[in-house]
Amino acid sequence: MKRLTLTGSAKEIGYQHGYEGKDEVHQSLQTYEKLFYGYKKLNWKAAKEIALTHMDAIEKYNPAFIEEMNGAAEGAGVDFEDILVLNTRSEIALTTTSEGPTFSDGCTSIGITSPITNQTMIGQNWDWKASQTKSLLLLHIEQENLPSIKMVTEGGIIGKIGMNSAGIGVCFNALLTDQKSNQVPVHLGLRSVLNAYTLEEAISSIHDSQMASAANFLIGSDDGRGNGLAMNVEVSPFGIDLLGGETGKVVHTNHLCSKKIQQNVKDLNTFKQTDSLLRCKRAEQLINEKLYQKKPINEETLKTWFADTFNAPNSINHFENKRAPEHRQIETVFSIVMNLTERHASVCVGKPSEAAFHHI
User: Fold this and answer.
1) Do residues 258 and 242 lie in contact, with contact meaning Cβ atoms separated by under 8 Å?
2) Backbone angle region of 182, left / alpha / beta, with phi > 0 → left and psi within -120 to 50 → alpha
3) Shared domain check, 144 and 35
4) For 230-272, what is each residue's pLDDT tens digit?
């Protein structure tokens, strides 16, 4: 995975992203153009039109995001709307605004903190199309008057999964639903969480109806001394719901859990029973097994959980299922474990059952 250090103004950070990650940006554009048309019968021009409906909300939310996306477009030699589409890809792909088979990322996220351990650790497997392995970028972002960020993303997308120097970290679980608005794309919400110094700032940036589509943000925060909290924050166009955290363990996969949000949003994950729920229950079982055995839980434990192959191919460590419809043939593209107490992280490119984690 290519590592980039991005510094300067929002425009300069974006330009470096696009210029140094040009190949990865173009890989993302190829992947999503094919996906949108192949599965949703949506051409790129139509995808740009959908993305542009979010511009007013983004400009009001954080104009620096517009500058950064403009910079990325210039650096990569593409149109601004191309980068905007990438950052709106969940809103385009994960709602019923167009025809075709439904598809989404598959991800398993886990958070462990006090009272189970004396550290705050979060992580996930990101399951998606294998071709997007070639789009991965590890960004180290140094921003003026904001925390520094370590983030794994797809080329051209300015917000995704990672942690910051203030001890805030976020994981992402896609949710396939029937509702979206013209508000702020969820990937820009992820970046706002990573721009936050405190948990209160992080939640404030995504609360109420600011997010344009439904998703789960597993957010962790630690003061650097082991005083921390991790919780699932399901977001939607109708507000948010904070789920779990008080017991020191949180798990989320790819289905809606909030009864509050389900009053307005319908979960369309037709593979909930056979994939998402099974991965969720398995993750809970693995955590409970360690607790019952009174064995310590540390970063290596999380790495082992993310390498779990029970119920393969639809395991936590996800394998491509050649017997499934094409739009469901996804696999673990990368895995990340973040220690928010000690402010470091490890990433595995590919399936953790087959590849090693490396410190970032």
Assistant:
1) no
2) alpha
3) no
4) 999 999 999 999 999 999 999 999 999 999 999 999 999 877 8
